[in-house]
Amino acid sequence: MIEAKLNDEMIRIAEARHHDPFSVLGRHPCGEGVVVRAYIPHATEVFIAEGNLPLERIPDSDFFEWRGSGKNLPEHYRLIWRDTWHHDHIAHDPYSYLPQITDFDLHLFGEGRHSHAYNFLGANEHEIDGVAGILFAIWAPNAERVSVLGDFNHWDGRRHAMRVRPGSGVWELFIPDITPGIFYRFEIRNRNSGEVLTKSDPYGRRFEMRPGNASIVAPRSTYVWQDTTWMERRAAADWQHAPMSTYEVHLGSWQRGYEGEFLNYRELARQLVEYVTRMGFTHIELLPVTEHPFDQSWGYQVTGYFAPTSRFGTPDDFRYFVDLCHQNDIGVLLDWVPAHFPKDAHALARFDGTALYEHEDPRKGEHLDWSTLIFNFGRNEVKNFLISSAIYWLDEFHIDGLRVDAVASMLYLDYSRTEWVPNQYGGRENIEAIEFLRQLNATTHTEAPGTLIIAEESTSWPQVTRPTYIGGLGFDIKWNMGWMNDTLRYMGQEPIYRQYHHDLLTFSMLYAFSENFMLPFSHDEVVHGKGSMLNRMPGDEWQRFANLRLLYLYMFTHPGKKLLF
Q: Is pTM beyond 0.85 here?
């Protein structure tokens, strides 16, 4: 006879709404012996492999249990079962393992001071007492239940429910005997509404090809880097007094195959390195290669902050891309998007049924121009997520710098909106975002010496590239959007009228040395019907080419680093 409390708990597990399945499943003391309990839907018979001990089915359920002395039962036992399709299975019981994430990691995570959260969150290869498997972990503080879904359990949310770590909002589960390469998602049940959500892994390092959105367990990289000389030289380089000419590239449109297909990272590397070397550029800046759902986009609606997009190959293929650039003395910069994220249901939006990564109030949490959501920079776990993403790219892929997108939209609470919420002092400055940016820059400069953090900042915010210890934001370089707009306005004039607009050329020299500037003619100047740089010049074809040559000559003699799309 099953006692009422246990029966109620089994019902909640079977209905996938139990908060703590470890309190029921696995091995537990029972009188002078132990009980081993398992929940395996569609199983017809179950045994403990060590000793071939049969588990008895609890009537009218998919629960099985064995009772005995337990003296000869190993700590990490294996279960053998046969399903209704007459397939046999054997695996270690995931509910026989203790928590794996350290209290120290959780403490740093809760304080917003963990810059390598990807080492324990997401899906990581793990081994316990010689048993290999995957440690899954996710932050979902408002969940009643979180499960791992995958090929290994037929995407059944009743199986592999996770353990919550009290006080942290982190859920974890070590699943033994599975290997990298499997597809997986997380199923989350909100504790208040009961809403069930299926989500990709925020810390996923690889994703299936669109239109699918499952995460893929990525193996530990075995790539052997050949860029030691570059990395040593970079750490000691005086970049401020060295020439820097950057070629901005969108990998999806720069070059295609004969039938219009995307090229692999390795194919792109060989062709791009040859071109960039011949043209004399010192750096490549990649428009976002972080995973995103839409092929026809620039890539700024990111759904995978730790994953090179699968469109062009594997993470190791991308490592080859960066490595080959470095071997040819070409730096690699990456566009990185911490300002906002898309509303796609499988990604970060309302991740655990609440506004977790974003703000609940749409006046703070939604960017109307882009129809995206704004990160809640005041939440420590969100800061961990973003800073860990930055460190991951700099560390794992040897990226030489990040161009932080849309910084102006982060700095101002009233950016491009008529309804907004002032800060605690009544001002429009986003104090939480400012602190996040300072922490980001301080952390990256400490942990990745020689890397550059570049701000796309279009306002006159002071001290963007000044150190944090004197009140600056701590960026290395700022895009000079004022110079770009003034110069294009001047060059767009017919030559006869330019004599009335020389102030557009001279004004930039009044502030050219107030920040560490980069002069950008980026992809933004050729989109939304603006036309090519050539077609923005006045005159006939010969005159347009002459004006464009003059424009680039002026650009390369003006103070500041250079960038061309």
A: yes
